[in-house]
Give the backbone structure.
Amino acid sequence: MAQPRFEWTPGVWQGWRESDNPYRQFKSERDRAFALQALQLRDGDFVLEVGCGYGWISRVLLEAAKIRWVGLDRSGSMLRQLRTPLESYQPAVLLGDGSRLPFPSGSFDKVLSTGVLMHVEDEFAVLREMHRVLRPGGILLCSMNSIYSPISWGGWLRNRHKKGYIQKYLRPVIYRRFLQDLGLQIVHVTGDGLLSTGALRLGRFSLPPAWAFPIIRTLDSWAVARFPELAHEVWFTAVKPSEPRTS
């Protein structure tokens, strides 16, 4: 029998994204900063966010420029939670599967999927579709979990008991090569952190401890600037060439 699918809900992500834990706060705000830096949003851009969830990244995109934005997610409860705080932006949201995007080829100026691909059954099918709907000259932003991360094995062991839950840890070179095989030009690779991506709760305590956060944040920032593929979540920024590649 097929294993039941883990159900993503606003409570799952809000409990993580909006935690009072300094490590989680640091990662969450850094994710927003990465997205803005990578996408270089301009007024009039048509943007697709695959796996938009309840809008943690979406909000800062809509605040950054007068963009046309479409969010797609397979969780109806996530999309319902997203609509209310973003109502003034009149967001277009769709319930759907990233591996079968309901848009014509070359529709969007910017396409992103962050914190999502490691949790889906076929992330490469999603990437193919993201590439298809991206216009020539457009920017694609995606992220994945790295097997080289110091905390990857802990995460894998911790999540084994969650029925239907998916969290993949791969070698970043696998994503790099796949994006390049699609014809994309990778322009930047960065990482969120080695240890400052979130702390494990052990009763009243956390690991790493809260008091060590300033030290770990500084060390992590130094390390991922030099070795981004050691980060827990590795981000790829790629451009779809305006002209097809020639052999």
In short: The longest helix spans residues 22-39.
